[in-house]
Design a protein that fits this description.
Strand order of the largest sheet: 1-3-2-4-5
Oligomer: single chain
Largest sheet: 5 strands, mixed, barrel
Structural class: mainly beta
CATH architecture of the largest domain: Beta Barrel
Low-confidence stretches: none
Number of helices: 1
Mean pLDDT: 83
């Protein structure tokens, strides 16, 4: 390095390389990674990640993408979390709310936990919970779910709401047997319920059935109309099958749908 003599009252003007070297050193220190972190770490938001839109179409701000389980997309560090986002394939799967509009194949910041805005299809203004259906990119309100609706405009239809992701809501659903219980390990038809505050109970949708299964030993297996609590499980045959958690010992009568 050349040393220059500065005369009295002469301003010292270091070569531009000095500034560039200082900036490169600062950048190098910041990107050292977990092995040699810089003395002063930049804050990292634990509730967000970079999401690649692999849904095959452009997505709006505050729509949702499933977090795909695939080989990692980059070197994983505390400050470098990049995840592939795909079309939702099932209910109850991890997903992200896009915080920016994003074209197909591009990257955007996504909310994976905590509180954020999101589009929600409000089915009933009394609903306080929501879930992400398979094949959809907008949350749907419900009497139960894994997303808590903190604020909404008080209108039905698709609304921009404030939601709390990964909230400690119940993941159990009420259900009513659509047929006599066939015994342990045999799939059967079930009417799923939705919790309604007006009746302080479950209302069963008798217009459609889902598949359920019971793996309990040595318990009574009731007839159609028995009600209980069920938990969603992945199924190769049905996509989702609902496992019995608790069930009536006998049937009190036919399933009722108050709001049909």
């Amino acid at each position: 390095m050349t040393v220059r003599k500065v005369r009295p009252k002469q301003a010292f003007r270091p070569p531009l390389a000095f500034d560039h070297n200082a900036m490169a050193l600062a950048a190098d220190m910041y990107h050292h990674g977990p092995e040699r972190p810089p003395e002063r770490q930049q804050p990292v938001n634990p509730c967000t990640a970079m999401i690649r839109n692999s849904s095959g179409a452009d997505r709006r701000q505050f729509e949702c993408l499933e977090l795909a389980v695939e080989p990692q997309l980059s070197k994983v560090t505390r400050e470098n979390i990049w995840i592939n986002g795909i079309e939702p394939t099932d209910t109850g799967i991890p997903f992200s709310v896009l915080l920016q509009p994003v074209t197909a194949g591009k990257w955007a910041l996504g909310q994976v936990a905590g509180i954020c805005p999101a589009w929600v299809d409000i089915q009933d203004v009394s609903h306080r919970w929501a879930y992400l259906p398979a094949g959809e990119y907008v949350l749907v309100s419900s009497g139960d779910g894994d997303v808590c609706i903190v604020q909404h405009p008080g209108l039905e239809g698709e609304q921009l709401c404030v939601v709390l992701l990964n909230a400690c809501g119940s993941d159990l659903r009420g259900g009513c047997l659509a047929e006599n219980h066939p015994g342990r390990g045999a799939p059967f038809d079930l009417y799923l319920g939705e919790w309604y505050p007006a009746i302080n109970g479950w209302d069963y949708d008798t217009s459609a059935t889902v598949k359920a299964i019971d793996w309990r030993y040595g318990v009574p297996y009731p007839d159609a109309g028995a009600t209980g609590l069920f938990k969603a499980r992945a199924s190769d045959a049905y996509g989702t099958i609902w496992e019995v958690v608790a069930l009536d010992c006998s049937s009190p009568g036919a399933c009722e749908d108050y709001y049909t």
